[in-house]
Each structure stands twice: as C-alpha cells, then as structure tokens.
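Page 47, continued from p. 46.
Same chain as before, 318 aa.
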Amino acid sequence: MFSIGIDFGGTKILIGIINQDGEIIKSIKRNVPRTKHIDEIIELTSATIEDLFSDSKISLSNISGIGVAAPGIVDADKGILIYAPNWSIRNFPIKKIFSDKYSMPVKVYNDVNAAAIGELHFGHGREENSFFWITISTGIGGALVINGELLLGNSGLAGEIGHIIIEDNGPLCKCGRKGCLESLASGTAIASLARKKIKNGAVFQKIDPKINIDEITAETVIMAAHADDGEAISLLEEVARNISKALSYVVNLADVDLMVIGGGVMESNGLLFKFIDKNMKRYVYEYDQRNVKLARPALGYNSSLVGAGALILKDKNL
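Result:
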C-alpha cells in the first residue's frame, strides 16, 4: 500500500506518493497561489493529487491515507492548522476537508514534526531512536524524539526551540518577545544582522558595496563567508554560538546525543555547521561523558514530504 504525503510550505506545495519503504514513487511541486486563499489552496492541492494518480498509474484504492505537513501551529488531534504565519491563515480544517473529499484517514502535523517523523522511520532514526531535529530556515523550529516517540507536549508545542530566549532585550522576534533564538540565528536574522553591521560601518569585503542593503539575504552572507570574508565569518560565528547554546539546553535537559540540523540556511553551509559543532563542546554539561553528534537530514529536502507519508504508513492504529 501507499500513502499520499503533502508538504505545505510557505511558498510551495509538494505532494507525493510514498511507499512502505519511505520511497517517493512520484511527486509534483506547485507554487502556493499568490492570494494564499484557503479555497484556492484546496483546489490546487486536489488538482495536483489527481495529476499524481494520472502520472503514476496508482489508483485511489491503493492509498491508505493522506498525511499533511503544515507550516505553522497545528492541532494534531483535530487536524486543524491553527495559524500559518506565512499564509496569514487561521483555523484551516485540513483533516475534515480532505477526509470528506477522499473518504480516507487524514493526519496533520506541523511541518517540523513531520520531518522528524520521516527521519525517525526512514533516516537517522533507524540507527538512533532518540534525537532532536532543528530546522534553520526563514524561521527556526524543532522536534524532540525520545525512544522512538515524537513528543508533542500538552499543547502540541514541544520542541519550539526557535522561541527559547537566548539574549534578554535582544532583537524583537515575530512572536512579540525579544531575544528569541529565531531573532538571532534564522535566515531572516542573519540578513538583518548583516544590514545592521553595514549601517554601523562594517565592511564585508566579499559583498558588492553597490548592492542595495535591503537586497542582502542570508545566502549573500553565507557565500561571502565561504569566500573568506572576515566580517561574514565573524557573523556566522556569532550565529553559531547562539544555536549551540540553544542545542546545549536540549542535550542537558533531555540527554539526547544526536542533533539533526536541517533547513535552507544549512544547505551548502559547511562553515556554520563546523562552528556549531565546535561550540557544543563549550556549552554542553559533561560533554566528554556524552557522545554528542551533529548530522544533516538523511532525507534532505524531502524530509517533511516523506514524514507526512509516514504519518499514515507508520500509524499502528490504521
């Protein structure tokens, strides 16, 4: 049997047919409608599912259910996307809509939690069943897996490492508080830090001085750092210290050794990975008595998609 995995991203919708081994039989990627209206998202998702059936020659009768990785706060029990910041959508009843339409089980998880589920069943989790997943992208999210179980917590908010306060009176976070990890180390934060440094007179040797300061992105800074720009390297070291500090809290509290670090900021970013690893030794209690390891996602870009499929395929109650 197969499942349908749906990865709703901030700007993309990735849908695939997943088999029992976590392999993607066929996938299709679409852009989120510019209006980001619920009705248009539903229509596009349904049309893409039909295209998948047509292209793969797999029929609806071979599908066990639909798993959805959603970009925001999710009520997993009710299958509702409570709030999607990048879509400005609230209370999207994903489970009801697609279970009514396709008459099959539907499960909905936050996208980071879904990625961790994929990693648990089809990635690093096959060798180590306790780990912490952190996504460093436009924002920062996390998921904690202990003894083969994803911990959701009382409100489904377990693992929200992006909103651990690292620096009192630090930069304002989109959550409304100051000094959250996300405000200090996300892709958005890296770009913001670089712009602030330039405004204060810092010179990035490998960033074109003629560039519009508002066009500087995290990728701009990362490329400069890999080109041996001292200012960019210093900025990434600062970011790494904050990430390492937050990860050390997880290690010290939950006693897990494996940190799986994914997200767009980490792609082709060996320097930041190295700096995080170096700083873990500084912040983790009794580091030499542990076996702390950093790893990149085994499933790469498709972690959330495969994880969404696994929500159905690995559910013992279905």
